[in-house]
Amino acid sequence: MARYYLGVDVGSVSTDIAVLDSSMKIVDKIYLRTKGQPLKVISEGINQLQDKYDNSEIGAVGTTGSGRNLAGVILGADVIKNEITTHAVAAVHMVPDVKTVLEIGGQDSKIIIIRDGVAVDFAMNSVCAAGTGSFLDQQAARLEIPIEEFGEYALRAEAPVRIAGRCSVFAESDMIHKQQLGHDLPEIIAGLSAAMVRNYLNNLAKGKDIKGPIIFQGGVAANVGIKKAFEDELGIDVIVPENYNVMGAVGAAILAREEIARLKRKKTSFKGFEITDFNFKTTSFECDGCPNCCEIVNIYQDSQLIARWGAKCPRWEAV
Q1: How far is residue 238's CA from residue 164's CA, in Å, rounded to a whole number?
Q2: How many angstroms separate the Cα of 20 from the Cα of each of 38, 179, 279, 282, 319?
Q3: What is the DSSP string of 2-58?
Q4: What contacts 259, CB < 8 A, 6 or more positions away?
Q5: Where does the pLDDT of residue 179 fall: very low under 50, low under 70, confident under 90, or very high at 90 and above?
Q6: For position 236, what pLDDT does the model report?
Q7: Which of 114, 124, 78, 100 is closest to 231 using CA atoms?
Q8: pTM check: above 0.85
Q9: 142 Cβ contact partners less than 8 Å away, ≥ 6 residues apart
Protein backbone atom coordinates (compact mmCIF):
# COMPACT_ATOMS: atom_id res chain seq x y z
CA MET A 1 0.00 0.00 0.00
CA ALA A 2 1.22 3.48 -0.92
CA ARG A 3 2.30 5.74 1.92
CA TYR A 4 1.96 9.52 1.87
CA TYR A 5 3.05 12.23 4.29
CA LEU A 6 1.03 15.39 4.79
CA GLY A 7 2.44 18.80 5.71
CA VAL A 8 0.28 21.84 6.49
CA ASP A 9 1.62 25.39 6.89
CA VAL A 10 -0.98 27.84 8.22
CA GLY A 11 0.17 31.44 7.89
CA SER A 12 -1.57 34.78 8.18
CA VAL A 13 -1.67 35.26 4.39
CA SER A 14 -1.64 31.73 2.97
CA THR A 15 -2.29 28.15 4.00
CA ASP A 16 -0.07 25.68 2.17
CA ILE A 17 -0.44 21.92 1.99
CA ALA A 18 2.10 19.44 0.61
CA VAL A 19 1.76 15.70 0.12
CA LEU A 20 4.99 13.69 -0.16
CA ASP A 21 5.36 10.05 -1.14
CA SER A 22 7.58 7.51 0.62
CA SER A 23 10.64 8.71 -1.34
CA MET A 24 9.93 12.28 -0.10
CA LYS A 25 8.94 13.49 -3.57
CA ILE A 26 6.16 16.09 -3.71
CA VAL A 27 3.11 14.54 -5.37
CA ASP A 28 0.51 17.17 -4.46
CA LYS A 29 0.49 20.74 -3.26
CA ILE A 30 -2.20 23.27 -2.47
CA TYR A 31 -1.77 27.03 -1.96
CA LEU A 32 -4.78 28.85 -0.47
CA ARG A 33 -5.33 32.37 0.84
CA THR A 34 -6.06 32.23 4.57
CA LYS A 35 -8.15 35.44 4.56
CA GLY A 36 -8.38 35.43 8.35
CA GLN A 37 -10.33 32.15 8.35
CA PRO A 38 -7.80 29.38 9.08
CA LEU A 39 -10.43 26.85 10.21
CA LYS A 40 -12.39 27.20 6.98
CA VAL A 41 -9.29 27.15 4.77
CA ILE A 42 -7.76 24.08 6.46
CA SER A 43 -11.03 22.21 5.87
CA GLU A 44 -11.14 23.43 2.27
CA GLY A 45 -7.61 22.19 1.61
CA ILE A 46 -8.21 18.78 3.20
CA ASN A 47 -11.45 18.49 1.24
CA GLN A 48 -9.48 18.89 -2.01
CA LEU A 49 -7.36 15.87 -1.06
CA GLN A 50 -10.23 13.71 0.17
CA ASP A 51 -11.00 12.12 -3.20
CA LYS A 52 -7.33 11.43 -3.99
CA TYR A 53 -6.15 9.60 -0.88
CA ASP A 54 -7.53 7.15 1.68
CA ASN A 55 -7.04 7.62 5.40
CA SER A 56 -5.06 4.38 5.48
CA GLU A 57 -2.53 5.82 2.99
CA ILE A 58 -1.54 8.75 5.22
CA GLY A 59 1.60 7.76 7.11
CA ALA A 60 2.07 10.94 9.17
CA VAL A 61 0.97 14.58 9.43
CA GLY A 62 2.99 17.65 10.40
CA THR A 63 1.92 21.27 10.90
CA THR A 64 3.79 24.56 11.00
CA GLY A 65 3.23 28.30 10.64
CA SER A 66 1.58 30.81 12.94
CA GLY A 67 -1.54 28.61 13.05
CA ARG A 68 0.36 25.36 13.60
CA ASN A 69 -1.23 24.57 16.99
CA LEU A 70 -4.73 25.11 15.65
CA ALA A 71 -4.02 22.98 12.56
CA GLY A 72 -2.33 20.33 14.68
CA VAL A 73 -5.34 19.88 16.94
CA ILE A 74 -7.83 19.83 14.07
CA LEU A 75 -5.88 17.34 11.96
CA GLY A 76 -4.39 15.19 14.68
CA ALA A 77 -0.79 16.05 13.77
CA ASP A 78 2.08 13.75 14.67
CA VAL A 79 4.44 16.71 14.92
CA ILE A 80 3.99 20.49 15.34
CA LYS A 81 7.07 22.58 14.52
CA ASN A 82 7.98 26.27 14.12
CA GLU A 83 8.61 27.85 10.72
CA ILE A 84 12.39 28.16 11.14
CA THR A 85 12.77 24.42 11.61
CA THR A 86 10.46 23.38 8.78
CA HIS A 87 11.89 25.86 6.25
CA ALA A 88 15.43 24.76 7.09
CA VAL A 89 14.55 21.06 6.75
CA ALA A 90 12.85 21.64 3.38
CA ALA A 91 15.78 23.70 2.10
CA VAL A 92 18.30 20.99 3.00
CA HIS A 93 16.02 18.40 1.38
CA MET A 94 15.97 20.38 -1.88
CA VAL A 95 19.61 21.53 -1.87
CA PRO A 96 21.64 19.35 0.52
CA ASP A 97 24.64 21.72 0.66
CA VAL A 98 22.56 24.90 1.15
CA LYS A 99 24.17 27.40 3.53
CA THR A 100 21.74 30.34 3.55
CA VAL A 101 17.95 30.48 3.32
CA LEU A 102 16.22 33.75 2.46
CA GLU A 103 12.48 33.56 3.10
CA ILE A 104 9.93 36.30 2.51
CA GLY A 105 6.25 35.65 3.04
CA GLY A 106 3.15 37.80 3.08
CA GLN A 107 3.49 39.18 6.61
CA ASP A 108 6.98 38.28 7.79
CA SER A 109 10.47 37.46 6.59
CA LYS A 110 13.32 35.36 7.91
CA ILE A 111 16.91 34.35 7.25
CA ILE A 112 18.33 30.98 8.25
CA ILE A 113 22.04 30.14 8.32
CA ILE A 114 22.73 26.44 7.75
CA ARG A 115 25.98 24.57 8.17
CA ASP A 116 26.38 20.85 7.50
CA GLY A 117 22.63 20.46 7.14
CA VAL A 118 21.82 22.07 10.51
CA ALA A 119 20.35 25.53 11.23
CA VAL A 120 22.94 27.34 13.35
CA ASP A 121 21.57 30.89 13.27
CA PHE A 122 18.44 32.73 12.21
CA ALA A 123 16.58 36.02 12.41
CA MET A 124 12.91 36.78 11.87
CA ASN A 125 11.08 40.02 11.23
CA SER A 126 7.33 40.26 11.77
CA VAL A 127 7.15 43.97 12.57
CA CYS A 128 8.21 46.02 9.53
CA ALA A 129 5.87 45.66 6.54
CA ALA A 130 8.43 47.16 4.14
CA GLY A 131 10.20 43.80 3.82
CA THR A 132 7.17 41.58 3.15
CA GLY A 133 4.92 40.43 0.33
CA SER A 134 1.91 42.39 1.56
CA PHE A 135 3.82 45.64 0.95
CA LEU A 136 4.57 44.58 -2.64
CA ASP A 137 0.90 43.68 -3.12
CA GLN A 138 -0.13 47.14 -1.92
CA GLN A 139 2.28 48.93 -4.25
CA ALA A 140 1.32 46.76 -7.22
CA ALA A 141 -2.34 47.60 -6.60
CA ARG A 142 -1.56 51.30 -6.25
CA LEU A 143 0.36 51.29 -9.55
CA GLU A 144 -2.39 49.17 -11.16
CA ILE A 145 0.06 46.43 -12.15
CA PRO A 146 -0.78 42.74 -11.59
CA ILE A 147 1.53 41.45 -8.85
CA GLU A 148 2.49 38.56 -11.18
CA GLU A 149 4.06 41.12 -13.57
CA PHE A 150 5.71 43.30 -10.93
CA GLY A 151 9.09 41.60 -11.11
CA GLU A 152 9.17 41.66 -14.92
CA TYR A 153 8.86 45.45 -14.81
CA ALA A 154 11.92 45.62 -12.57
CA LEU A 155 14.00 43.61 -15.05
CA ARG A 156 13.26 46.18 -17.78
CA ALA A 157 14.84 49.03 -15.83
CA GLU A 158 17.99 50.59 -17.30
CA ALA A 159 18.69 53.00 -14.45
CA PRO A 160 16.79 52.10 -11.24
CA VAL A 161 16.04 55.08 -9.00
CA ARG A 162 16.96 54.95 -5.33
CA ILE A 163 13.97 54.50 -3.05
CA ALA A 164 14.07 54.97 0.72
CA GLY A 165 13.12 51.50 1.92
CA ARG A 166 13.61 51.43 5.69
CA CYS A 167 9.92 52.08 6.31
CA SER A 168 6.86 51.21 4.24
CA VAL A 169 5.39 54.70 4.73
CA PHE A 170 8.59 56.46 3.59
CA ALA A 171 9.04 54.01 0.71
CA GLU A 172 5.56 54.69 -0.62
CA SER A 173 5.90 58.48 -0.34
CA ASP A 174 9.32 58.30 -2.01
CA MET A 175 7.82 56.26 -4.87
CA ILE A 176 5.10 58.85 -5.36
CA HIS A 177 7.74 61.59 -5.38
CA LYS A 178 9.78 59.74 -8.02
CA GLN A 179 6.64 59.36 -10.17
CA GLN A 180 6.00 63.08 -9.89
CA LEU A 181 9.55 63.71 -11.10
CA GLY A 182 8.73 61.73 -14.25
CA HIS A 183 10.65 58.49 -13.70
CA ASP A 184 9.34 55.49 -15.64
CA LEU A 185 7.61 52.63 -13.84
CA PRO A 186 10.35 50.02 -14.50
CA GLU A 187 12.97 52.30 -12.91
CA ILE A 188 10.71 52.94 -9.89
CA ILE A 189 9.82 49.27 -9.42
CA ALA A 190 13.46 48.21 -9.75
CA GLY A 191 14.34 50.84 -7.16
CA LEU A 192 11.62 49.55 -4.85
CA SER A 193 12.91 45.97 -5.26
CA ALA A 194 16.44 47.07 -4.39
CA ALA A 195 15.15 49.05 -1.38
CA MET A 196 13.20 46.05 -0.12
CA VAL A 197 16.29 43.85 -0.36
CA ARG A 198 18.47 46.45 1.42
CA ASN A 199 15.87 46.67 4.17
CA TYR A 200 15.82 42.88 4.51
CA LEU A 201 19.62 42.59 4.66
CA ASN A 202 20.02 45.53 7.06
CA ASN A 203 17.35 44.21 9.43
CA LEU A 204 17.90 40.47 9.29
CA ALA A 205 21.33 39.73 7.83
CA LYS A 206 23.44 42.10 9.92
CA GLY A 207 26.32 40.12 11.37
CA LYS A 208 25.20 36.94 9.61
CA ASP A 209 27.71 34.83 7.68
CA ILE A 210 25.96 34.66 4.31
CA LYS A 211 27.44 32.02 2.03
CA GLY A 212 26.25 30.10 -1.01
CA PRO A 213 24.45 28.07 -2.05
CA ILE A 214 21.62 30.46 -1.22
CA ILE A 215 17.97 29.45 -1.48
CA PHE A 216 15.18 32.02 -1.80
CA GLN A 217 11.75 30.74 -0.75
CA GLY A 218 8.35 32.00 0.34
CA GLY A 219 5.69 33.62 -1.83
CA VAL A 220 7.87 36.60 -2.76
CA ALA A 221 10.43 34.25 -4.37
CA ALA A 222 8.15 34.29 -7.43
CA ASN A 223 9.17 37.92 -7.97
CA VAL A 224 12.10 37.86 -10.40
CA GLY A 225 12.87 41.50 -9.62
CA ILE A 226 13.48 40.73 -5.94
CA LYS A 227 15.59 37.69 -6.85
CA LYS A 228 17.79 39.84 -9.12
CA ALA A 229 18.06 42.54 -6.43
CA PHE A 230 19.34 39.91 -3.97
CA GLU A 231 21.89 38.68 -6.53
CA ASP A 232 23.05 42.23 -7.26
CA GLU A 233 23.39 43.06 -3.57
CA LEU A 234 25.06 39.78 -2.52
CA GLY A 235 27.11 39.18 -5.67
CA ILE A 236 26.12 35.52 -5.83
CA ASP A 237 23.50 33.42 -7.63
CA VAL A 238 20.28 32.81 -5.73
CA ILE A 239 18.35 29.55 -6.20
CA VAL A 240 14.54 29.58 -6.27
CA PRO A 241 13.30 25.99 -5.77
CA GLU A 242 10.38 24.73 -7.83
CA ASN A 243 8.13 24.49 -4.78
CA TYR A 244 9.29 27.78 -3.22
CA ASN A 245 5.80 28.70 -1.97
CA VAL A 246 5.07 25.52 0.03
CA MET A 247 8.49 24.86 1.61
CA GLY A 248 7.17 25.13 5.17
CA ALA A 249 4.58 22.45 4.44
CA VAL A 250 7.24 20.26 2.80
CA GLY A 251 9.45 20.53 5.88
CA ALA A 252 6.52 19.69 8.15
CA ALA A 253 5.76 16.53 6.14
CA ILE A 254 9.42 15.41 6.26
CA LEU A 255 9.60 15.97 10.03
CA ALA A 256 6.32 14.09 10.54
CA ARG A 257 7.74 11.06 8.77
CA GLU A 258 10.95 11.26 10.81
CA GLU A 259 8.95 11.48 14.05
CA ILE A 260 6.89 8.39 13.23
CA ALA A 261 10.09 6.49 12.39
CA ARG A 262 11.88 7.72 15.52
CA LEU A 263 9.06 6.58 17.79
CA LYS A 264 8.65 3.37 15.77
CA ARG A 265 4.94 4.02 15.54
CA LYS A 266 2.95 2.15 12.91
CA LYS A 267 -0.10 4.39 13.03
CA THR A 268 -0.45 8.14 12.56
CA SER A 269 -2.52 10.38 14.84
CA PHE A 270 -4.26 11.82 11.75
CA LYS A 271 -7.99 12.14 12.43
CA GLY A 272 -8.87 11.39 8.81
CA PHE A 273 -10.31 13.33 5.92
CA GLU A 274 -13.68 13.21 7.67
CA ILE A 275 -12.63 16.24 9.72
CA THR A 276 -14.27 18.30 6.98
CA ASP A 277 -17.61 17.04 8.31
CA PHE A 278 -16.96 18.43 11.80
CA ASN A 279 -17.84 21.90 12.98
CA PHE A 280 -14.81 23.59 14.56
CA LYS A 281 -14.95 26.84 16.51
CA THR A 282 -12.45 28.87 18.55
CA THR A 283 -13.06 31.21 21.47
CA SER A 284 -10.71 33.04 23.80
CA PHE A 285 -10.69 34.73 27.17
CA GLU A 286 -8.21 36.59 29.37
CA CYS A 287 -7.19 34.75 32.51
CA ASP A 288 -7.36 36.88 35.68
CA GLY A 289 -5.44 34.42 37.86
CA CYS A 290 -2.24 36.50 37.97
CA PRO A 291 -0.66 39.68 36.53
CA ASN A 292 0.34 37.80 33.33
CA CYS A 293 -3.26 38.11 32.07
CA CYS A 294 -2.70 35.30 29.54
CA GLU A 295 -5.03 35.06 26.56
CA ILE A 296 -6.42 31.51 26.65
CA VAL A 297 -7.60 30.03 23.35
CA ASN A 298 -10.24 27.29 23.32
CA ILE A 299 -10.99 25.10 20.32
CA TYR A 300 -14.25 23.18 20.05
CA GLN A 301 -15.20 20.29 17.79
CA ASP A 302 -18.99 20.00 17.46
CA SER A 303 -19.42 21.91 20.76
CA GLN A 304 -16.90 19.71 22.60
CA LEU A 305 -13.77 21.39 23.97
CA ILE A 306 -10.82 19.48 22.47
CA ALA A 307 -7.85 21.76 23.12
CA ARG A 308 -6.71 24.86 24.95
CA TRP A 309 -3.48 26.84 24.90
CA GLY A 310 -1.95 30.22 25.68
CA ALA A 311 -1.32 29.88 29.42
CA LYS A 312 2.07 30.42 31.02
CA CYS A 313 1.15 28.07 33.88
CA PRO A 314 -0.63 24.70 34.15
CA ARG A 315 -3.93 26.21 35.34
CA TRP A 316 -5.78 25.67 32.03
CA GLU A 317 -3.98 22.56 30.80
CA ALA A 318 -6.84 20.16 31.57
CA VAL A 319 -9.45 19.89 28.83
Answers
A1: 24
A2: 22, 47, 28, 30, 33
A3: --EEEEEEE-SSEEEEEEEETT--EEEEEEEE-TT-HHHHHHHHHHHHHTT--GGGE
A4: 60, 62, 78, 79
A5: low
A6: 93
A7: 100
A8: no
A9: 172
